[in-house]
Amino acid sequence: MNRVLLATAGGDCPGLNAVIRAVVKRASKERDWEVLGSVQAFNGILWEPSEVKVLDEHTVSGIHFKGGTILETTNKGGPFAWPVKNTDGTWSTVDRSDEMVRKLQYMGIDAVINIGGDGSQRISQALAEKGLNVIGVPKTIDNDLAVTDSTFGYQTAVQIATESVDKLVTTAASHNRIFVLEVMGRDTGWIALNSSVAGGAEICLIPEIPYDIDKVMERIYSRFRKDRGFVIIVIAEGAKRKHGEQSKEDTGEVGYANVKYSGAAARLVDELKEAGCPYDIRSTVLGHLQRGGVPLAYDRILATQFGVKAFEMVLEGKFGEMVAYQHPNITSVPLEDVITQHKYVEEDSDLVKNAKGVGISFGN
Ligand code: F6P
User: The domain 154-292+346-357 is classified under which CATH number: 3.40.50.460, 3.40.50.740, 3.30.230.10, 3.60.10.10?
Assistant: First the structure.
């Protein structure tokens, strides 16, 4: 019997369960393959005793439309930076990757499919360099992974952000207010840009185009006549002012390597007030609502295709590679290419130009 191990790693994302189901369903067409799932990314392997689930057609039945991941996930620690508590109460990390590779061999695992974003695919690449048969599946709502046109979960996040803009429009118009909506995306503005166009926001502030508060004010004034009017501003969590800094904080959580983006909307409200904005302003931080709930049909389809492809890559021995969508094909690319690049919104792209064409200001 051959064994493939699945892990879902990093932040959760709508569509993870559809990938898991697709791998299991495709594997069940082969007579001699068993699919296992490590609980909470690779923690399930690293824990003593290990926590691994057998995934069969019964286990994955009907999970394709469920958000989250039945395997659980984590964006803390991992095989290369396992948190350990020192005797003085402080924490440090140790590299347990060799131990994990040995354990996987002992468990008879022939291949690993690691479903995750850029951080997780860096782990995939490092494990591949240690000789593990790893295949990556790209996952992120941020859409910032290079070499794949898109990732599952992203369209769902854009839809949730767009519906939020729609809802804010009615209250903003009723109260003649400015509403600032902060959306996710780390160093990229894909969710902000797309939900601004879809929702008809007046101003869209993204990390790739640092804003000038006077230009933002100009667009605001253009929308008010004798104090009547309203404005929707969508701001990406990583957006910053020209010559300014992103709003980030170290959470202090043990083993959490990410910096937390937090406070962009609140900062913008302060900047607007300092710039003398005479209108009422309210802000909303959409946060993890963007990652929760049912995946859109588009994301379920992409996730299903990624799962089938990932298992077929196992059969073909395409290790050290990641599944990618390069329209119209579902293909594979070296993990090396994925971790050395980042996909940013280009200021001279058609979508930014067209957004400007319908009056969206980027504050520049
Ligand atoms: O990468 C996905 C993402 O949702 C980012 O958009 C966001 O900055 C981050 O994860 C939040 O991470 P956490 O779930 O650890 O708060």
Answer: 3.40.50.460
- d(CA 108, CA 66) in angstroms, rounded, equals 30
Any atom of ligand 1 within 6 Å of the Cβ of 291: yes
Distance of CA 320 from the midpoint of ligand 1 (Å) = 25
Ligand 1 centre to CA of 287 (Å) is 8
- CATH number for the region 2-152+295-327 comes to 3.40.50.450
Residue 115 per-residue DSSP state? E
Atom of ligand 1 nearest to the CA of 141: 2
The response to whether residue 185 sits with its C-beta less than 6 Å from ligand 1 reads yes
pLDDT tens track of the chain, all 364 residues? Answer: 999 999 999 999 999 999 999 999 999 999 999 999 999 999 999 999 999 999 999 999 999 999 999 999 999 989 999 999 999 999 999 999 999 999 999 999 999 999 999 999 999 999 999 999 999 999 999 999 999 999 999 999 999 999 999 999 999 999 999 999 999 999 999 999 999 999 999 999 999 999 999 999 999 999 999 889 999 999 999 999 999 999 999 888 887 777 899 999 999 999 999 999 999 999 999 999 999 999 999 999 999 999 999 999 999 999 999 999 999 999 999 999 999 999 999 999 999 999 999 999 999 9
Query: What are the boundaries of each domain within the chain?
Result: 2-152+295-327, 154-292+346-357
Task: Give the Cα separation of 267 and 283 in Å (integer).
Answer: 10
DSSP H helical segments within the chain, as ranges? 16-27, 43-46, 57-60, 97-106, 118-129, 154-175, 190-199, 213-223, 264-274, 297-316, 335-339, 350-357
Instruction: Tell me if 232 sits within 8 A of 204, measured CB to CB.
Output: no
Residue numbers annotated as active site: 142
- Residue 67 to residue 296: CA distance in whole angstroms: 10
Instruction: Find the 179 Cα to ligand 1 centroid distance in Å.
Output: 23
**Ligand 1 mutation target, pool 253, 258, 343, most atoms within 8 A of CB:** 258
